[in-house]
Amino acid sequence: MAVGRHIRFLKEYVSEPNVVGAVAPSSQFLAAALCVPFQNHQGGCRVLEVGAGTGAVTRYLGTIIGQEDELDICEIQPEFIKVLKQDILTHPNFADAVATKRVKLLPHPVQDIEGEDKYDFVISGLPLTAFALRDVHDVFKVIRRCLKPSGVLSYFEYVGFRAMSSTFAVGSRRKRVRHVSAYLDRKIRNFQINSKTVLRNVMPARTRYFKFNGT
Question: What percent of the chain has pLDDT over 90?
């Protein structure tokens, strides 16, 4: 099954590189790092996962979700939605949450997520460096709107990827990457509360944890 997930992921990357943004799913070690704030939380809470892909993080969430927790999963790619429905949410770890409708699949863009101050945690697998600056801005705007004032955003980026892209990209792509990188650097300075480097991944990654504090 793991080989099949990697093949599906690569297929989607080839067809939609600006949407998928990676050539392989996240490792279990990266998934665990992204879920640290949620895993350390006491009591029931509401979690939003965006950019779920083939479900590497979703699968890990299934091992730690509690009986009082709720999980919304946002994914736009049809092939990945199919994987989530057939391979991930049918796992016994999700049986109770699915039966009690505490897990919902949101098959639409992040920008279409509704509501305010509704999630305790947002866990993102979105390839921000593959997006246009206006889309990155819109994603952060939605996440801040949806997070509770004390909520935490977890996301990751590949170590050195932004610097490498800014150096070797050409033309309009270089301009886009540099603008997105500068935007992310400002967010990191203003809102990052912690970070963790994960070496045991197809590409080493750094998880970042943000708290916006309602500001």
Answer: 77
